[in-house]
Each structure stands twice: as C-alpha cells, then as structure tokens.
C-alpha cells in the first residue's frame, strides 16, 4: 500500500530519473567506451577483438592490453555508478528532495568513501546475477554480458554439463537473495565489504523464502500488468484496423502507449526492489510536497518531445518491418531432413530453394578436402579420430548417422558437383586446425577459386587467416569473418560478418551498412528470432529450418494487420 501511494505521487520523478540515466548511458557513456576501444585497436593496428586473438593481444600488444584493462575498470565503476545514482535518486524522491545535483553529489561522495574492493565485488556479483536481474536493473553497459546461445545449446545437450549448469544457476540465485543488502549497507551505512557481507547474510537468515516470494510477487505484478496492457491495446487496434484511415495513426499511438507503459512498469518494479533493500532509516518519506521542482516544470514538454519522436518512429516501424534476408541452410539441412553436410540432405534441402546452403570443409591427411563440421568423428561416425588423420578415400568410405538418417561423408568435389546440378549456391566455411598442412589455404584457393567464383559461392571462417588469404589469393570472392561475440565492430578486409545472434544488435548492423559490409546472423530458428533478424535488416540468416523461415517471412510481409504488428513490437522494438 505504501509503495503504491508513493509511486502514484512521485511516478513522474521516477520516470525522469530512469530516463535521464538511461539516455546518458546510451547517448554519451557507451559511445565514449566504443570510441576508446576503437582508438586503442587502431593504435595497435588490431583489426578485431575476439577470444580468438586474446592471447596474441596480451603478448604482442601489452600497452593496448593495459588500456583495455583500464577501460574495463572504468566500465565497472560506471555500472556501479549507475546503480548508485538510481538508488540515491529513489531515496531523494521518497524524501521529496530530488535533484540531479544532490544525486550526483551523494554518489560522488559514496564512491570516494567506498572500499575499492566493494566496487569489484559489485561487478562480480552483478555479472553473476544478470540472468535474474533484468526486470529490476537493466544496464545498457551490461547488454553484452550474455552466454551465446550456441554454447548454452551445447551444454544443455550434455546431461552432466546441464546438471552442473542448473546447480550453478541455483547457487547464484540463492546468493543473489542472501546478499541483497550488501550494496545498500556499503553505500548508506559506510560498512566495509567484509562486514556488509556478514550483515546481509544475517539479515536474510531464515528469510530466504520471504524475500524470494516478495521478488516473485513484484515480477508477477509487472508481468500481469504488461500482459493486461498488451491485451487492451491489441483489442483497440483490432477495431481500428477496420478503417484504413485510422489504422496507421491509431497503431502509432498504441505502440507508443505500449512502450511508455512497459517502461513505467519496469520502473515500478525497479523502485519496488530498491525500496525493499534500502535501510529503514532512509526509506522514511514525507509524502506531501509544497515545492515545485524544475523537474516538474519540464516534465510535460520532455514527455511531449519523447512521445512525438516515438510516434514518428513507430509509424515508420508499422509501415516498414525491414528487408527479407537471404535464407541460408545451416550445414545443408532443413528441419532434420538428413545428416548434416551430406549429399542426400543437400538434394532434399535444395528443393526448398534456399538462397545459400552453408557447409563446412576440412583438410584431409592427403591434403584434399572433405565436407565435415566436427573436428572429431566420434559423434557422427562413432570413430575417435579427426579428419586430418585420415585420407579422403578413408573418409568418404565412412557412414555418418544423425536424426534417424545415414549417409556417406562426401568429398568437397562431389558436393560442388551435386550443388551445380541444382544450381544451388553455397556458403563454404573453411575450418582450420593445428594439424593442417602448411600450404593448406594456398592449395585450396589455387584449386577452387575459379569454381567458387563461377558458381557464385561464398566463403566464411572463424579463422582470420582464411579471410586474409582469401583476399590475397581470390580477392573477388565474398569472404565473411565469423564472430561468435560482438565486442566491438571490427575493421577487416572481409566482405561482411557472420554474427552469432545472441549479441547482434542494430548498432552493429548500422555500422556494417555504413562500412559497406554485409551481415549474416546465425543460427536463427525460432519465429521470434526470424522476425528480429528482419527488423534488424540483416542481409542473411543461417537457419536449420529453411521451409519454416520462408513461411514466417511470407506471412510477416503479407500480413498488413497493425494489431499483429503491435504484438510483434513486444519482441522487436525493445531490441
């Protein structure tokens, strides 16, 4: 009851607080970090930043590494600062003493007095509880702290890893509850990190389920309110869609109301959590205010400005949902219609007419090339060895099994020949290992560059050496550098980038278009992810379900119902 009364009285200030902090991060802080990273990489002539070049970065560019570590430390401080700013803002709003000058002053004083270990504890703590924190505290600075989906899929397919992952998340959830009060104690009570840990553990002793239920209650209320808002606006839009004149205008207004309402609900949830963990002596508030702050005076024009921008942007969203990307079959299959990277699967998948079929090739012991993804044949052929340890004849004699199908391992030459019969373009991923021959790449391009170019095939690889070799030996071939993680936009001679979809965002796609680079997204399977890819305007999607992808994009573009596009906005626009 008290929270409800407080929020109804001060919702405008809460909204401005979160909005100003969010915009400051998006417009100023994050671009500064990106510029800093790009400057450091340019100074070291480093074309990209990934886990694949982390070791060479440390050994060959120590000063650049130190600059990046300094950036990481400042990023941690900024994340802590964001939390402290919001926490101080909530306190001052409840006390009717809200001003950004006071918030900044209090936060700066707290940072100066804080035990440095406390900030690093906060970083580790928050990175661990990110999976549980999105509804309560969502920082753009932490947007890339996610586990790529392909890694999660791999872990969940292994019973032992899946069990360990479940135990890990359970332990983190328990810790996130037991350590709820650490940061407020450090900020407002000036308690050192060790004492704050002990006090928070004591405060939550025998109260784990009580606090868990309170958090679940807040989450449930936020979810139900969001669903109710969506249902009401969807129903209204169904009526408006009956009249073409009112459909677009009403749709723009409804999508804007959905955005504002959803943001307000998330702000309420955040405030509810913060007030739950604040010490009692700072949550006491005077509910009636006689003074009119400058924030109250500018609130209406500020909201009007953002609403106008949102209305125009949402109108554009409703009439243009992005281009339909190229559809690329992942490992040559369509809905498990065969064994990956095999000829029978190619013949079936080619009938669905994907724009490209993506395959993987590796070098053999006798320096030929075979179509195979795995570095070990155990899973598909029940043979504990690598393709590099067998000749092409030995490999093509093996039978592989998957999804109830079986087939022979094909040579790259055979696969190219069958693809030509179907006039099927290929996206060829060159996989490299430490066992490859010294001249493997030169041999590959000398043998295949003409065939690849004549049939409009393309290349991609996780190995940057493949990209530079492609530009050296076959400069007119399209070559894409595969990025499993979006740290910073790379500066390479590649024609484009194949990006794992988890961290792919509109900023990366925009930078790619400005650099005249293409972007392929992998692996895009669900209807939600397919729509997101189109909305981001990626050039192509790599999918396990070609037929379903075609169906989704056909309906996505053919359906002119603004009511349905309003529902799509729930998953598309927040990104």
From TrEMBL:
Q: Give this protein's Gene Ontology molecular function annotations.
A: phosphoric diester hydrolase activity
Listed A to Z, the keywords are: Membrane, Transmembrane, Transmembrane helix
- Pfam families given in the database record: GDPD, GPDPase_memb
Q: Does the keyword tRNA-binding apply?
A: no
Domain named GP-PDE: which ranges? 325-553
| Superkingdom field | Bacteria
Biological processes annotated in GO: lipid metabolic process
Name of the protein: Glycerophosphoryl diester phosphodiesterase
């Amino acid at each position: 009851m008290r929270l409800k009364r407080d929020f109804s009285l001060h919702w405008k200030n809460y909204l401005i607080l979160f909005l100003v902090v969010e915009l400051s991060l998006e417009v100023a802080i994050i671009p500064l970090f990106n510029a800093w990273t790009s400057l450091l990489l340019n100074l070291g002539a480093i074309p990209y930043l990934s886990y694949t070049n982390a070791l060479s970065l440390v050994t060959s560019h120590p000063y650049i590494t130190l600059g990046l570590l300094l950036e990481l430390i400042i990023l941690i401080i900024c994340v802590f600062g964001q939390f402290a700013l919001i926490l101080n803002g909530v306190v001052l709003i409840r006390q009717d003493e809200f001003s950004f000058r006071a918030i900044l002053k209090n936060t700066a004083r707290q940072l100066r007095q804080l035990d440095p270990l406390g900030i690093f504890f906060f970083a580790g703590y928050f990175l661990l509880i990110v999976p549980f924190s999105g509804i309560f505290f969502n920082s753009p600075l932490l947007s890339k702290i996610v586990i790529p989906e392909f890694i999660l899929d791999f872990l969940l397919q292994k019973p032992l890893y899946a069990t360990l992952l479940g135990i890990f998340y359970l332990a983190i959830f328990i810790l996130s509850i037991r350590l709820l009060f650490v940061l407020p104690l450090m900020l407002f009570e000036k308690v050192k990190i060790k004492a704050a840990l002990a006090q928070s553990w004591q405060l939550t002793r025998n109260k784990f389920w009580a606090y868990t239920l309170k958090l679940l209650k807040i989450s449930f209320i936020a979810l139900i309110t969001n669903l109710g808002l969506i249902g009401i606006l969807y129903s209204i839009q169904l009526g408006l869609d009956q009249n073409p004149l009112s459909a677009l205008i009403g749709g723009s207004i409804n999508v804007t109301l959905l955005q504002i309402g959803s943001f307000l609900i998330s702000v309420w949830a955040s405030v509810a959590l913060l007030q739950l963990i604040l010490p009692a002596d700072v949550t006491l508030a005077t509910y009636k205010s006689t003074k009119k702050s400058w924030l109250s005076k500018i609130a209406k024009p500020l909201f009007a400005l953002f609403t106008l921008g949102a209305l125009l942007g949402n109108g554009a969203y409703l009439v243009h949902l992005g281009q339909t990307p190229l559809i690329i079959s992942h490992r040559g299959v369509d809905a498990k219609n065969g064994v990956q990277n095999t000829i029978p699967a190619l013949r079936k998948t080619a009938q669905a007419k994907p724009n490209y079929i993506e395959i993987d090739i590796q070098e053999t012991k006798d320096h030929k090339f075979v179509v195979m993804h795995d570095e070990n044949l155990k899973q598909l052929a029940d043979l504990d060895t690598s393709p590099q340890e067998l000749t092409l004849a030995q490999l093509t004699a093996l039978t592989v099994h998957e999804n109830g199908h079986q087939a022979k391992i094909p040579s790259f030459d055979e696969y190219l020949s069958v693809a030509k019969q179907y006039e099927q373009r290929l996206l060829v991923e060159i996989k490299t290992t430490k066992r490859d021959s010294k001249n493997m790449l030169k041999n590959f391009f000398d043998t295949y560059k003409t065939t690849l170019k004549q049939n409009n095939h393309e290349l991609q690889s996780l190995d940057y050496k493949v990209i530079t070799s492609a530009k050296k030996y076959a400069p007119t071939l399209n070559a894409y550098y595969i990025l499993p993680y979006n740290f910073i936009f790379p500066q390479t001679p590649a024609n484009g980038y194949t990006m794992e979809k988890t961290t792919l965002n509109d900023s990366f796609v925009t930078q790619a278009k400005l650099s005249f680079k293409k972007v392929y997204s992998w692996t895009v399977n669900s209807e939600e992810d397919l729509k997101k890819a189109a909305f981001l305007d990626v050039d192509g999607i790599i999918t396990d379900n070609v037929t379903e992808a075609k169906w989704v994009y056909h309906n996505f573009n053919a359906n002119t119902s603004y009511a349905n596009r309003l529902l799509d906005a729930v998953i598309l626009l927040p990104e």
